């Protein structure tokens, strides 16, 4: 699938126009909030948003080139192997699940295997926050990111020193 | 004449506002702050603010 030709408006955003005339903006913004307890990681995290210019309504129908273009932009950014990207699904209109599935599907379809996608659902402030962390598999902070992300999303609880010592001293573990 | 209320409802924030909020948030609540920041930037652009305006408010963008 041939992606649309996109324009890079350094240092702020990417833009492309579909064959139907809809203009999309994609941008990465610093997002140190989630990993603020991990100073070595927090500056390496960027949020990612996709928006429509002038907030026009979308045409109905499937344009697979949009997915190919968005994944190309993401992949080029992550291929630098310096940064991780967090994608958080907007839930203000109740369509976060659709966004989550669409994004996951796009990524599964066009990722060449070089990028790892960690998906999570976090319950906070009375709402479910669907999100995904994207990181290059050769990023030197990969393991640190995975551990921090799993702790933050509640998928993993890091043992404290006493607990760890007990585990190491347990012959049956 | 009726004016759009969207712009009236929109409240400008700085990047520092979200950083401070994240410092106070614990664990999973940090995702809530990140969601609010993501939504804020998106809303700001839809309410006529430019990337330059957002940068003046302390937000930083990146491309490669």
Describe this protein's structure.
The complex is a heterodimer of chains A (173) and B (64). Chain A is α+β, with helices and mostly antiparallel strands. Chain A is 32% helix and 28% strand. Chain A has one domain. Chain A has a seven-stranded mixed beta sheet, sandwiched between helices. Chain A starts with 6 loop residues before the first strand and ends with a helix. The mean pLDDT of chain A is 89. Chain B has 64 residues and is mostly helical. Chain B has a domain at 15-56. The N and C termini of chain B lie far apart (46 Å). The longest helix of chain B has 18 residues, at 29-46. Chain B has helices at 6-9, 15-24, 29-46, 51-56; one strand spanning 61-62. The model of chain B has no long low-confidence stretch (mean pLDDT 88). Classes of the chains: A alpha+beta (173), B mainly alpha (64). Chain A binds chain B through residues 8-14, 25, 27-37, 46-47, 49, 51, 55, 76-77, 80, 83, 86, 88, 90-92, 122-125, 127, 129, 131, 152-154, and chain B through 15, 18-19, 21-23, 25, 27-35, 37-39, 41-42, 45-46, 51, 55, 59-64. Strand 3 of chain A pairs antiparallel with strand 1 of chain B, so a sheet runs across the interface.
């Amino acid at each position: 699938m041939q992606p649309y030709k996109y324009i890079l408006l350094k240092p702020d955003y990417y833009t492309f126009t579909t064959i139907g005339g809809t203009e999309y903006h994609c941008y990465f913004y610093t997002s140190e909030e989630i990993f603020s307890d991990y100073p070595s990681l927090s500056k390496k995290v960027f949020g990612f948003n996709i928006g429509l210019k002038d907030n026009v309504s979308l045409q109905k129908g499937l344009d697979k080139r949009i997915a190919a273009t968005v994944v190309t932009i993401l992949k080029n950014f992550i291929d630098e192997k310096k940064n991780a990207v967090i994608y958080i699904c907007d839930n203000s209109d109740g369509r976060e699940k659709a966004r989550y599935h669409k994004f996951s599907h796009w990524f599964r379809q066009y990722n060449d295997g070089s990028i790892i996608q960690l998906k999570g659902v976090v319950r906070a402030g009375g709402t479910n926050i669907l999100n995904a962390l994207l990181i290059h598999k050769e990023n030197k902070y990969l393991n640190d990111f995975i551990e921090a992300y799993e702790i933050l999303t509640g998928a993993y609880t890091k043992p404290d020193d006493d607990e760890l010592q007990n585990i190491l001293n347990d012959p049956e573990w | 004449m009726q004016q759009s209320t969207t712009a009236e409802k929109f409240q400008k924030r700085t990047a520092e506002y979200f950083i401070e909020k994240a410092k106070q948030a614990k664990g999973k609540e940090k995702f809530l702050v990140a969601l609010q920041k993501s939504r804020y930037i998106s809303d700001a652009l839809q309410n006529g603010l430019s990337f330059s305006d957002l940068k003046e408010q302390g937000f930083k963008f990146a491309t490669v």
